[in-house]
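Kindly inspect this today.
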Amino acid sequence: MKPVLCLLVLLAGLSGGAAWAGPGAERLILGVAENAGDIPTLIALEKGFYRDEGLDVATKSWPAGKLALEAMLRGEVDVATVADTPIVMQSFKRRDFVVIATFSHNTPYRLVADRLDGIRAPADMRGHRIGVMAGTTSQFFLHSVLADLGLAPSEIIEVDVPAGDSADAVVNHRVDAIAAFDPHGYFAQAALGDRALLIPYEKDRHEETFNFAVGRDFVQKRPLVAQRLLRATERTIEWIHGHRAEAIALAARRLKIDETVMASLWDNYRHALSLDQVLIVSLENQARWAILNGIGGGGKVPNYLDYFDSSVLDVVLPSAVTIIR
């Protein structure tokens, strides 16, 4: 093997699965949630937009952003992609992390029941075992849907089911229904086939955000890396908007969802960089919900302004920062 080729092979082997970004590239370990909320990140990895911005990105993946955030807080990754509810849950316990940008707004949920377990209408959920991953947006979603149906959480048997086990749990009768975000909700519905009852809900009332979370000192220590991350994300979002069909195909392949199904869901996902006041209000509402239901907190809603660092987005896309400070 020629010396130059040997060197290239060696560099590829050291890249942690990421394409080599070239000399001067900054190493970044990104904790990724392999679900529908994280589509811009997954596409940026597929298309090489991080590499183009001078980042040598290695990834660690989990089925839920809650797990990626926990890994970031343990120091296993530099940046985590995570939805809003896990941010709320961690805010009750610690103050050593911040959100530097939101990049996606989504309604990716499914509440799927097994008709064989006696749920043939939404009201039949009373007294049944409903699986949901605790401490995630799926749990907040489930409680919101129950409220819409006139049911209290105490009227069901809530079972903590990891997102990746959703399909197995409902198919094998460990639970009677599952509340999960895609692709895990999709997998559960597909596995049940004709047994599946999809519980309807008002999509406009159940939106999540997906965000970049970092340690509180990350931006101070590595400001250029944080800026490159957001610039690559903005490029990705622009590409998604301009290449709808290809973006759908990439997301479907990465998430293992039928492309026709992904196309039918695509308008449920809105991608844009932001840090806005609406997110703070949402976090406050979820904190009150968690306190009311004894899920987290000691009776006091945190000041979520303390959990945002807008300095990076102020440089990259200042018009996207609308937090009242």
Summary: The first strand starts at residue 26 and ends at 33. Residues 109-205 form a domain with the D-Maltodextrin-Binding Protein; domain 2 fold (CATH 3.40.190.10).
